[in-house]
Amino acid sequence: MKKLFLLLFFLLWVGVIFAAEHQVELLEVKDPGFVKLGGYKKPPAYFSHDLHVSLYRIKCKYCHHQFVNGKNVWSKDKPIQACSKCHGQNRRQLILAYHNLCFNCHKRLRALSPEADAPVYQCNRCHLPNLEAVKAEEKRITNKLKHRKKQVLELINKIEQGGLVK
């Protein structure tokens, strides 16, 4: 029994260490609306869904929304639609939909905590030109989290008090 307990404890410990030090994965933001409107003019934008949901604790409904009579009725059991479904009448409107979602949240975050590592005016932090740049940004974020996890968690608590996340 004691050996089983020690084995389970060891496996749990290994899982916690792995979870705390796993490599950040950035996902490309894809929207078929841009193709219909002439394609992308800048390099694609990337972000980590896992970090925004798991570590930063951003509410799903903050990014995924469907408004009916002024109320967000989207829920996890509903499909996720491309932003262009509602915001894609023209290229400018679609770009603003994405920028307003990301940019405005990052601006509020920086207002609450100026030291926050949330890109606001650095286009090249989200719009990455090639796989090498994506891998470099993944590594940068992973290293930041390894060395500044406590500060990041303190910032998240401050943000929660400001009402931006769960």
Care to describe what's here?
This protein has 166 residues and is mainly alpha-helical. The chain contains seven helices and four strands. The protein has one domain: Cytochrome C3 (Alpha-Beta Complex), CATH 3.90.10.10. Helix content is 56%, strand content 5%. The chain has a two-stranded antiparallel sheet with strand order 1-2. A hairpin with a 2-residue loop joins strand 3 (67-68) and strand 4. Mean pLDDT is 80; it is low at 3-19.
What is the fourth-level CATH superfamily? Cytochrome C3
Tell me the CATH topology.
Cytochrome C3
CATH top level?
Alpha Beta
Question: End-to-end distance, in Å?
Answer: 40 Å
- Report the CATH architecture: Alpha-Beta Complex
Radius of gyration: 19 Å
> Which sequence of strands runs across the widest sheet?
1-2
Largest sheet: 2 strands, antiparallel
The shape is globular
Task: Give the percentage of residues in beta strands.
Answer: under 5%
Structural class: mainly alpha
Low-confidence stretches: 3-19
The counted number of beta strands is 4
Percent range of helical residues: 55-70%
H/E topology pattern? HEHEHHEEHHH
